[in-house]
Design a protein that fits this description.
Elements lengths: L18 E5 L3 H13 L3 E4 L3 H10 L4 E5 L8 H8 L5 E5 L4 H9 L4 E3 L5 H24 L3 E5 L2 E4 L4 E4 L2 E2 L4 H12 L5 E2 H9 L8 H17 L6 E4 L3 E4 L15 E2 L1
Parallel strand pairs: 1-2, 1-3, 3-4, 4-5
Antiparallel strand pairs: 6-7, 6-13, 7-8, 8-9, 10-12, 11-12
Helix pairs in contact: 1-5, 6-7, 6-8
Length: 261
């Protein structure tokens, strides 16, 4: 029997049914979310047990996990941290009814957060949008020429979806990578929040645009951990983001021509 590392992930097969784990506290909520996800094409497993979710991450290989707001609480840090280390798995939290709850979850690395008033149908469509977008990105990367963009101590490998600072790999989440890679596509220009949202979440996404600020703020901390004296991104108030002038301080730091991997 082939090992996990020897087999091709199902997520890389474009026509394979997407897979989701629903981990909501109440049985009725799990059932309605499971049914809604099934109707839009997902294969679903549902549970409220963290140990079972742990096992499903390895055996079922979900592309997205639907969490109850209680699991985004700091008391569940070990579990959330484990999910954050899985860059191949999206997370969406349901039941964060206050702005503070939603921002707290996003700051802790959750990919999307909705209130308890959001319908199961919307949750399912949000999940499908995230998973299908990731599959499209992978398909483009597989047929296109992978390249490495270099800005001083910073390098972005678009084929391997890796960000490095001074040679150190940055543990970026999938959304953090997607947002930052979009900025690096036009390094000398300001990219608006609307453009970032459309590029990463799709044209039909709606919600608090502050989600962009939260994900990029999380990534900024990770980047500066490896180069504390370098400013990587600049926020243009009321507009969006661009790469910092530190990336182009002199000719040596100007972006090198993209090179084939």
């Amino acid at each position: 029997m082939s090992s996990r590392n020897d087999r091709r992930p199902l997520a890389s097969v474009p026509d394979a049914a997407p897979r989701a784990v629903v981990a909501l506290a109440h049985h009725s909520d799990r059932r309605t979310a499971e049914n809604a996800l099934s109707l839009v094409g997902f294969v679903v497993r549902a549970t409220d047990d963290l140990t079972t979710i742990d096992a499903l991450l390895e055996s079922f290989e979900p592309e997205i996990v639907v969490l109850d707001a209680r699991e985004a609480h700091p008391s569940a840090d070990p579990f959330v941290e484990k999910l954050k280390q899985r860059s191949d798995v999206y997370t969406i939290v349901v039941g964060a009814d206050s702005r503070e709850q939603r921002l707290s979850a996003l700051e802790r690395g959750i990919d999307d957060v909705v209130s308890s008033e959001v319908t199961p149908e919307e949750i399912a469509l949000r999940c499908r949008s995230m998973v299908m977008r990731a599959r499209r990105h992978r398909a483009v990367e597989e047929v296109g020429t992978s390249k490495t963009l270099v800005f001083g101590p910073l390098s972005i490998d678009t084929g391997r979806r890796e960000i490095k600072v001074n040679g150190h790999l940055i543990a970026a989440t999938r959304l953090e990578y997607d947002l930052f890679a979009r900025l690096c596509e036009t390094p000398y220009e300001v990219t608006s929040r609307a453009a970032l949202i459309e590029s990463v979440w799709g044209p039909n996404w709606y919600g608090d645009t502050h989600v962009v600020d939260v994900h990029l703020s999380n990534l900024r901390r990770k980047l500066r951990h490896r180069a504390s004296d370098v400013r990587f991104m600049h926020t243009v108030r009321g507009v969006g983001f661009r790469l910092s002038d530190d990336m182009f301080a002199n000719r040596r730091l100007r972006p090198l021509a993209a090179r084939s991997a």
